[in-house]
Amino acid sequence: MNKLKSSIRIALGALMMNKLRSALTMLGIVIGVASVIATVSIGSGATERIQAQIASIGSNIIIVIPGSTTSSGLHLGAGNAVTLTETDAKELASQCPAIALAVPMVRGGAQVVYESNNWATMVFGVTPDYLAIRDLSIAAGSDFTQQDVAAANKVAVLGQTVVDNLFAGANPIGAAIRIKNVPFTVVGVLAPKGQSSSGQDQDDVILLPISTAKRKVIGINAANADAVNTIMLQATSAAQMQAAQDEAEALLRQRHHLQAGEADDFSIRNLQDLFAAQEASSNIMAMMLAAVASISLLVGGIGIMNIMLISVRERTHEIGLRQAVGAKTRDILSQFLVEAVTLSLAGGLAGIVLGILASVLISRMAGWATSVGPGAVLLAVFFSALVGIAFGYYPARQAAYLDPIEALRYE
Asked: Helix-strand-coil percent breakdown of the chain, rounded to 5?
């Protein structure tokens, strides 16, 4: 233990005697560790952002939209046909064990007016289960009820953005607003939800009973009064997502009288699969960036090895004197290894600080979410020490196995 302490003291003394050279030697490690920390923080931030987006949309959600249509030989794409109905939604909820909720939806843009203020927003015609399926909550007032849907009552629940632009701090509950010149009573205000994965403001919305939205605001489809734009499903659990999707597909094919081999007239989208693909892409990109950044660590390690070899040559006579007074091979080896690891660790710690600062600057200037976890910091410290040992061992071994006689003769 005493010999190790002595080796550490001698190594630190040698480094302090050449401060500028030691600082320049650490530079490659500093840049490498900072780059890795910054890239890992960007990747972690992207993953957290995707997880927050999933949470903001709701849990275990599956979207069903109408199928495509063909007009004059032109394929118009999914969502153009009138193939989904409110009855489909009711049957999906009652006939599919893996589906907990099914909400039919119609939507459209509308101008809403309150006194002298007006605002253009999106209007969703839904059922009361929409709040549960989207993990929404009421911040003030209450949601509309199934009785409101049955009676097509003119009641509305507003998102916070609509409230801010129409009421300017006044209490909206009980206020009379006009949507496309139709009077509605505000019964509730949604708790803020923030932006969606596509950057859309989820609070810029008005919820109406689906029956009222069809009759008074959006209009009834001329081909089918029961038609809806979308059916939103919620599986009973994350493990039942695939089962819910399969059950929905089978029931809708049966209800729509589709024969074997005939294409679906609807499209089912599993949002978890979509976000999982996004997260996988984000992780791959972060790993690629970290791999590129880690090249700086390799360069820094080579720099340490070069400087240590120069140091061994410069201190050959000193090494010979130490050997002459009884220093063993392992003592010399440990001294030079301590120098290499100290350089690498000091560079690693400086790189961590620089990497964290870079992450903060990237977050503020570019608007990207970043997250520096303790795991990334510990990994950086570990790799710094590993680089010091890996690239310092060869020079240390060269020093430890010098011939004492030749070393003493060296000028």
From this structure: 55, 20, 25
